[in-house]
Write a structure and sequence with these properties.
The complex is a heterodimer. Chain A is α+β, with helices and mostly antiparallel strands. Chain A has eleven helices and ten strands. In chain A, helix 6 crosses helix 9. The termini of chain A are far apart. Helices cover 30% and strands 15% of the residues of chain B. Chain B is globular and about 40 Å long. Chain B starts with a strand and ends in a 14-residue tail after the last helix.
Chain lengths: 248, 54
């Protein structure tokens, strides 16, 4: 009976690992190689996973929740440069061995994650073409996303960027109900909280979102897409990877 | 610190329901100017990439 229970637990864990789109994209026999070293962890909102310069000792694959990558300013502020949800991973290039983090990684929305130590992951990557391919593809996709993001921050209006961010966040957590404060949104978009309040109010009046303390609910995706900059469509991972020729 | 509310009067009115703590009227004026800059900056621009679909 104990054996059966262990088998069921192992089966549940394997299913949960596949909630992450990168892990789910691996061939089953490749995922089976990682399975022994993959752990199930959870983080709460605000948990810091990595600081700039930290050795990448663990790699995290979100199953739910959202991680925010940010560059730190001298004044102590943090500017968000990328978000990672179930379409991605944090510290994946740690699988190339001896790498360090460039950004801070903070849990923006708490959730469940698959985690693996970088050392066994690098060892497996060394012997597995599909795992190396995954690392390279995801790195290319992140680079493209960062380039689009840098242009977006330079030339797009705050309202369009807010809509883009909300849609992207909903995609990456596969939920229309985002547990985010306006303070958090302001920080991620690099604008004043008052600006976020006014933009969110305007979207709410138009029936596109519903806002209450600490939660934003998307009500009309099509309407939000019309208000978002084109960066939303460009950086959707299911579109971006094939467009770059790196669909895995 | 006093609480300031920054309502937006445009073609439609938008109410600042939350307000912001600021030291004085001068700080509030500066905050309002900053918000106005953030709301109006780059509103009309667009990017083009090789990835644009039809």
């Amino acid at each position: 009976l104990g054996q059966l229970r262990r088998a069921i637990l192992a089966d549940t864990a394997a299913k949960r690992h596949r909630d992450n789109r990168l892990l789910a994209a691996l061939p089953p026999d490749t995922l089976a190689l990682l399975d022994r070293d993959l752990k199930q962890v959870s983080f709460q909102q605000g948990a810091i996973l990595l600081e700039p310069g930290d050795r990448l000792e663990d790699i995290y694959f979100p199953q739910t929740g959202l991680i925010s990558l940010s560059v730190l300013g001298r004044d102590g502020g943090a500017i968000e440069t990328a978000t990672v949800g179930r379409e991605g991973a944090v510290g994946l290039h740690g699988g190339l061995g001896g790498r360090r983090s460039f950004t801070r990684a903070t849990t923006q929305i708490g959730g469940r994650f698959s985690a693996i130590r970088a050392e066994p992951f690098a060892h497996i990557a060394n012997g597995s073409a599909p795992v190396r391919h995954l690392i390279l593809c995801y790195t290319e996709v992140l680079l493209a996303e960062a380039q689009q993001g840098s242009a977006c921050n330079a030339v797009h209006g705050a309202g369009a960027r807010l809509c883009r961010w909300l849609l992207q966040c909903a995609d990456r957590t596969e939920s229309e109900d985002l547990p985010l404060t306006q303070e958090a949104l302001a920080q991620m978009l690099g604008i004043r909280r008052t600006t976020v309040t006014l933009l969110a109010q305007a979207l709410q009046v138009r029936g596109l979102i519903k806002y209450r303390r600490g939660h934003i609910v998307l009500l009309d995706r099509k309407g939000l897409e019309q208000c978002a900059c084109e960066c939303y469509h460009v950086t959707r991972h299911e579109k971006l990877a094939p467009a770059l020729g790196v669909a895995s | 610190m006093p609480m300031y509310y920054f309502h937006l009067h445009d073609d439609k009115d938008v109410v600042d329901s939350d307000g912001t703590d600021l030291p004085d009227a001068a700080a509030a004026r500066e905050h309002a100017a900053g918000v106005a800059r953030e709301l109006t900056a780059n509103r009309a621009s667009s990017t083009r990439t090789g990835l644009d679909g039809p």
